[in-house]
Amino acid sequence: MMSKEQEEVRNTFIEIQNSMIKKDFDALDKMVKDDKKYVHMDGKTQTKQEFFEEIRNGTLNYFESTLKDEVITVTGNKANIKGKCTLKAKVYGQSGEWTLPIDHNFEKINEKWIFCN
Question: Is 0.85 surpassed by the pTM of this model?
Answer without folding.
Answer: yes
